[in-house]
Each structure stands twice: as structure tokens, then as C-alpha cells.
Specification:
This protein has 382 residues and is α/β, with parallel strands linked by helices. The protein folds into two domains: 270 residues, Aldolase class I (TIM Barrel); 95 residues, Golgi alpha-mannosidase II (Immunoglobulin-like, Sandwich), CATH 2.60.40. It is built from ten helices and 16 strands. An eight-stranded parallel β-sheet has the order 7-6-5-4-3-2-1-8. Strands 9-10-11-16-13-14 form a six-stranded antiparallel β-sheet, covered by helices on one side. Helix 2 packs parallel to helix 4, helix 5 crosses helix 6 and helix 7 runs parallel beside helix 8. It is elongated, with a radius of gyration of 21 Å. The model has no long low-confidence stretch (mean pLDDT 96).
Length: 382
């Protein structure tokens, strides 16, 4: 299996946008090792859009790296990333031009796949801008999927068509290893909240070999960079990262990791959250939210539940509002009754402490826009 767990890595776009460079990529690869991100499971260094010259080479027809940004070429960049024990990711697009108006792969899929293989690429993010109206999206992603499978190198195919044409229903069949069905994230609470809510009915489409991708994380950006927008505080980032882990999304950091703060670094390396995200069974979460009277779904709260491997479970209590709220979880919604003599023992993922055992219900008082996340196991009631 090329991809039996959600991909983890870092992408240049959110912070650096149209200015990727060889120096930036090398410094970021160095930071991966120094900061322990590789040891935590992150492995892909992905160069997004704007890496090439504005036009293809007239003689060879190939896309050529911009020598001002990558003076030693992409093969040298890939070699440096590989020398750190990391994997090399790049970007193209299914349209005639990329989203930033650089050469894309429409009509050049097999040629470009061979080019990426020659560069030593391990991961391809494949966008969806400037697609001719007459072109069928499913066919275009199938072309690149087949091109990558025949290029002579294992390359993770990260499809990014934002859910157009209900692609979550068919993207797996194109050979894609991850699919994105959301618009672009920006660094704001409203943005990541809307992305999470938009995915609640799509969990069925995510499984080993083709995982959900809720877009690159803005965790740790604090309003800086290309998609900085209003910025978020640390509580928002804790919620965002926790929700991406609960939903088994790809974990692609988007902040400047060469200047990451200690709190953010501790968060993105949290072993319990990463354990949830990387669970080998990759089962989807379900929403077991209930209001105080247990009769309807709460507008301002969610409780997500996931079965994990090795007899463990995950619970996430999320307060979407700007006020402190009591959030309820009723265990009967999970098939557990008080008469069964068992309860869920909660271990807080942020403190590592066991906080209690619950066999009828749990009530969590959650601060505004925050989350409480637990790894649980069923134990006998005392």
C-alpha cells in the first residue's frame, strides 16, 4: 500500500504563496529534522504553485523550474529533501494553466508525470483551475492517475478539485490517494468551521488509499502569509488541528515552520491526536451531538466519535459558539446502556490524564470555540 494512513507534511502555499524557493525548501527540510517533526510522522515537503517559468520549454515541451527561485533545479531540491529522510512533493493542475497562471498539465499529463519522476517527486498536488468547459473532470483526473501509475515511480496523487462535479463520489476510481472537496482555507475561525461542517456528510468517502483532505492547516499562522486573513488564536488552532485529526484528514502544515512557536509545535506533535489521525483502521467519525433535552442536533455544539484500532475510541466535544457551553454526549447513541456494566474511560489528549468513566452520559463544559478531546476505552464500572 502506498498510502494506508493520511499523508502528513508541509506545503509552501499558505504562508509563502507565489514565492517558493530552493532556500526556503531546504531551510524547511532542516527544520523538520531539528524540531522533531519527522519523528512525529510528518514526511512530505511540498512545493505548491509558481515554481516554474511562465512558459514551457519550446524545444522539449517540458515544464522548467524558474532558475531565479530554484537555481540548481528540481532534481537537486528533491535530492536534498531525500537526504534528510523526507519525501518530495510538487504541484500541477488539470487545466490549461495553474491557479496562479503558470503552465499546467492539460494535454501533457504523461509527459509531466515522467518529468516529475525524473525530479524524484513522491507527491503531486493536482489542482483544478482553467479547465476547458468542454473537458470532463473525471477524465482529466483519470489521465493523470494513469500517467502517474505508468511513470516508473511511486507518486502519491493528491487530487484538489474542491468537490466540483461531486468528485468525492468518483475520485477514488481515478487512482487518487487523497481528495479535496472544500474551497480554499483562510486563517479564520469562520473558514475552518465552515470546512468542518461541509465535510460532515462525506466521511464515507475516506478510507485507506484515498483519504479526505480538508485543505492545508493554518495552525500557527497568526494572520501572517498569503492566506493570513484575520488570523486565529491558539484556541482556534487547537480546535482546528483536533478536528482535522478526528476526520482523518491529510495533515499538511501551512505556517512558517522555521519560525514556529513552542505551543504550536507541541500541538502539531501531540502524540494522542496524531494517533487518532493515523489510526490504521481509518474508520470515519460519526456525529452524536445532542442538545440538553436530547431531542435535536445542537446548532452550536458537536460531539464526534470514532472507533479506533486496539479497542480504543476517540471523542471530540466542540463548542462552535462565542460563549461557554455545556455539551452532552449520551452513550446510548453508541449502543451502551447503564445495565451493561461498562463505561468509557476518558484520557485527555492534552494532559494525558484520565478524567473519568462514563456509561450513561458525559457532560463537558467547553470554553468558546474550543475542544475537549479524549482517547477512550471500555472498562468495567466499579
Amino acid at each position: 500500500m502506498l498510502v494506508n494512513k493520511p499523508p502528513m507534511g508541509w506545503n509552501t502555499w499558505n504562508t509563502f504563496g507565489m514565492e517558493p524557493s530552493e532556500d526556503l525548501v531546504k531551510r524547511s527540510a532542516d527544520a523538520f529534522i531539528k524540531l522533531g517533526l519527522k519523528d512525529a510522522g510528518y514526511e512530505y515537503i511540498v512545493i505548491d504553485d509558481c515554481w516554474s517559468l511562465y512558459d514551457r520549454d519550446k524545444k522539449t515541451g517540458r515544464i522548467v523550474a524558474d532558475p531565479a527561485k530554484f537555481p540548481n533545479g528540481m532534481k537537486a531540491v528533491g535530492d536534498y529533501i531525500h537526504s534528510k529522510g523526507l519525501k518530495f512533493g510538487m504541484y500541477s493542475c488539470a487545466g490549461v494553466r495553474t491557479c496562479a497562471d503558470y503552465p499546467a498539465s492539460y494535454g501533457h499529463e504523461f509527459e509531466d508525470a515522467r518529468t516529475f519522476a525524473d525530479f524524484g517527486v513522491d507527491y503531486l498536488k493536482y489542482d483544478y483551475c482553467y479547465k476547458p468547459v468542454c473537458a470532463d473532470g473525471k477524465r482529466l483526473y483519470m489521465r493523470m492517475g494513469n500517467a502517474l501509475r505508468s511513470c516508473g515511480r511511486d507518486i502519491l496523487f493528491s487530487a484538489c478539485n474542491w468537490g466540483a462535479e461531486e468528485s468525492y463520489k468518483w475520485m477514488r476510481a481515478t487512482g487518487a490517494h487523497s481528495f479535496r472537496s472544500t474551497g480554499d482555507i483562510i486563517d479564520s475561525f469562520v473558514s475552518y468551521k465552515n470546512i468542518v461542517i461541509s465535510q460532515e456528510d462525506l466521511h464515507y468517502a475516506s478510507a485507506p488509499q484515498c483519504f479526505n483532505d480538508m485543505d492545508m492547516l493554518t495552525v500557527g499562522m497568526y494572520g501572517k502569509g498569503l492566506v493570513g486573513s484575520t488570523g486565529c488564536d491558539f484556541t482556534d488552532y487547537r480546535a482546528q488541528f483536533s478536528l482535522w485529526c478526528m476526520f482523518a484528514s491529510s495533515l499538511m502544515l501551512g505556517c512558517d515552520i522555521t519560525n514556529i512557536d513552542e505551543k504550536t509545535l507541541e500541538l502539531v506533535k501531540n502524540k494522542y491526536l496524531i494517533r487518532i489521525n493515523q489510526d490504521e483502521e481509518a474508520r470515519p467519525p460519526i456525529d452524536i451531538s445532542a442538545t440538553m433535552n436530547a431531542s435535536r442536533h445542537g446548532e452550536f455544539e458537536r460531539v464526534y466519535f470514532r472507533q479506533l484500532s486496539d479497542g480504543e475510541y476517540a471523542f471530540c466535544f466542540w463548542n462552535l459558539s462565542d460563549k461557554k457551553r455545556k455539551i452532552f454526549a449520551f452513550m446510548s447513541q453508541l449502543g451502551l446502556e447503564a445495565t451493561d456494566g461498562l463505561g468509557f474511560e476518558f484520557r485527555d489528549v492534552f494532559t494525558g490524564e484520565v478524567t473519568g468513566v462514563y456509561n450513561e452520559y458525559a457532560i463537558e463544559t467547553v470554553e468558546p470555540r474550543d475542544v475537549h478531546v479524549y482517547i477512550a476505552k471500555l472498562v468495567p464500572m466499579k
